[in-house]
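User: Need the bound-state model for manganese (II) ion:
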Amino acid sequence: MGSLDDVNDLRSWLELAHELGEVRTITGAHWDKEIGAASEVNYKRPSPPALLFDDIEGYRHGQRVLTASMGNARRLGMTLRLGTDLDDRGLVEALRSRPGEWLENAGKYAVDVVGSGPLCQNVITAGDANLLDFPVPKWHESDGGRYAGTGCAVFTTDPETGVLNAGAYRMQVQNGGRAASVNMEAGKHGAAHVRAWFAKEGRAPVTASLGHDPLLLVVAGTEVPAGVSELEYAGAVMGRPVEVIRGEVTGLPIPAHSELAVEGWLYPDRKEQEGPFGEWTGYYSGGTEAVLTMDIERIYHRDDPIQLGAPPGKPPHDYSYMRSVMKSAMIQDALIRSGLPGVEGVWAHEVGGGRQLLAVAIHQSYAGHARQAGYLTSQLPSAAYMNKFVVVVDADVDPRSLNDVMWAVCTRTDPADDIETMRQTWGSRVDPLRAPGLPPFNTRAVIDACRPWTRLKDFPRVAEASRELVDHVVRRWPDVLGGTW
Ligand SMILES: Cc1cc2nc3c(=O)[nH]c(=O)nc-3n(C[C@H](O)[C@H](O)[C@H](O)COP(=O)(O)O)c2cc1C
Ligand SMILES: [Mn+2]
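Assistant: Bound-state model below.
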């Protein structure tokens, strides 16, 4: 059996996942909708296996696509180097306070620049570079085109400080495979870098990896704080630096063990129509818009490259489990670090794509505590993008249980008094409620579902048998009442 220490790229990750019985292979699928639909059927099942597509119609054996990479606790725990046999609860336990530690340690794991790496097995220059030489899927029936990887990591730098950023931004294949649009929402770190480069040099260098250790998707696709390199953060997770090569054209780093990567420049006036794309909100939201597009200067790939797919859709979707677990841990950490007392737990519910519905449980200890927790959470950098509802509950309510959270809303929230709304907050192009053409603001609500502070002493008791009484009857009639409870 391989060990977590041996995992340093997608292949070693797959080897270990195979040994754990966590991978199923599908052969003969078509890139046009079949890979996407098979992935969707798979990820709708509880605890789905990872799916590896090979012998894709029209492509050579070995040119593969992986989906559902982190669709259960075991594989997400493995990817985060926390263990190979974790269940949902164990993973949440093991993650507690880790994001903060990784953040603190990131600075110790500067990337290791190497002269060459497996990614350099094949280097294709502009005239010959065509992304459609690889089985890039059309994921959903009404997508506007083929989306490369989707579990991608787009690399940019701050032109002043050189600090590297990695973000997962959807990339649609353009111009018959010779270009790719990069859909960065305006508030994202990559977009800030691109604007700074445009102001300074009139163009922005970009590299993007389309297949890699899923850990790189976790760090690129989750809100690591601004100014922190996601590759250093990944180094802190692994306990060793990420090896990178420098792109031949832009000098920007690319993970040396990546499977497939592209390189090019973005220019302010070089845009292509992009979308629609089936998104994590559960809609083809975002429509079709002109989006910054890079003409591909180089394609780098290993022999028989594996794209890392992460197709979103109506939740639960390919990466909604990963997003919920990571966002919950990061927001809880950030909330505790803000100095807010009494934080019991945070959960970013999958039904809202890990963004739109956040539940925060607190030990209410002063008048105003609950609203403070709600407002703060709704605006934390790790939580603000596309949040719609923050529900604050008392510590007796499990924030991970949608049933218990909504029970608290039904019984402890007075709609006229306990729902606070905010306007002109940070929304997204992909919000189905956004009016086309208007800036992506949204509105949001803090729902105070704590027992009212003024009524704490006389609020009705919860009608539920005590733990002791439950234990007593279960012990008395174990055959009927089921041993443990
Ligand atoms: C598979 C996947 C696709 C994503 N697509 C986009 C996208 O197209 N545009 C975007 O702005 N954010 C997208 N995100 C969310 C960003 O990756 C996320 O907000 C991340 O924190 C961005 O990095 P940054 O904070 O360094 O900007 C996606 C995330 C994942 C996991
Ligand atoms: Mn970032």
